[in-house]
Amino acid sequence: MTRSALLITGAGSGIGRAVACAAARDGWYVHATDIDHAAAAETLDRVRQRGGHGTSHGLDVTDAAAVAQTFSALDAASVPLRGLFTAAGIDSGGASHELDPAVWRRVLDVNATGTFLVVQQALEAMMHGGGSIVLCGSPAAQVGFAAGGVTAYGASKGAISSMTRTLAVDYARFGIRINAIVPGPTETPLMWANVPSADVERMRDQVAREVPLGRMAQPEEIAESVLWLLSDRASYTTGSLIGCDGGVLAKSSISV
Ligand SMILES: NC(=O)c1ccc[n+]([C@@H]2O[C@H](COP(=O)([O-])OP(=O)(O)OC[C@H]3O[C@@H](n4cnc5c(N)ncnc54)[C@H](O)[C@@H]3O)[C@@H](O)[C@H]2O)c1
User: Fold this and answer.
1) pLDDT confidence of 194, banded at 50, 70, 90?
2) Tell me: the pLDDT tens digits for 104-131?
């Protein structure tokens, strides 16, 4: 059986790391990349502990030259790239009327432009053989969060939603499927990036009460949906935003 490679950005933590571990179980050869190379290397250790194989790379997705260099360093001749999962992301924000434009630019740069730069390289690698690309969206692309202050993050994820649809249409004829996973609140460092540590426990309980399924997701639960999208079991699914959100987007807060 010819093995296929999956490249993951933001593989050093949270959802990206969980996808790397599940991918090893499913037989993918895993290229784990992250701006934090030590964290990506730790993910690769976990892949190997599960009997998997792969490589690790320090990669800042906003650096176009580094993205191109990382893809050209892959041994695509012996293990062709057939999968991409773009988990690299940041969440920073605040009230829009006083948001530092540098913060806006950084969030868009990492979450939207960084995703695009990586997708460009993956498309090139998959043009003659096909593949499956899974981007990382968010409910913030579709609704305003009650906590507020997520305009930059929401806009960056809105870009992911539209990229998913337009890329899917453009590259279907090359046998490349492009979808996005839309995770609900998931227990990762990013979830608490803007919450003072003293408030985390209280916020965790509050979020759990607000989610229809009554709890936050574990990254491994999101990973299962991503692995399905990456696999041939999703062979007729492209251009879709697939919710894995505990019912968050189905819920209205109107209670009367
Ligand atoms: N956790 C949630 O509740 C949630 C919900 C919806 C969507 N998401 C999305 O899931 C994705 C993964 O987030 P997570 O929750 O696992 O967060 P996380 O913080 O655990 O992981 C994000 C990873 O991205 C890496 N990263 C940050 N900037 C980078 C850059 N410039 N280049 C390369 N890597 C970079 C970080 O080092 C980190 O390892 C993100 O796109 C996030 O927006 C998360």
Assistant:
1) confident
2) 999 999 999 999 999 999 999 999 999 9
> What is the C-alpha separation between 121 and 118, in angstroms, rounded?
5
Residues 230 and 83 sit within 8 Å (Cβ to Cβ): yes
Is the separation of the CB atoms in 193 and 13 below 8 Å? no
Domain ranges in the chain? 5-243
Distance of CA 163 to the CA centre of its chain: 13
What separation in Å is there between the alpha carbon of 254 and the centre of ligand 1?
31
| pTM of the complete model | 0.97
Task: In whole angstroms, give the CA distance from residue 157 to residue 162.
Answer: 9
State the CB neighbour count (10 A cutoff) for residue 173. 7
Topology at the third CATH level for domain 5-243: Rossmann fold (3.40.50)
Report the residue among 7, 9, 15, 153 best suited for mutation to probe ligand 1: largest number of ligand atoms under 8 A from its CB: 15
Q: Is 92 in the pocket of ligand 1 (CB under 6 A)?
A: no
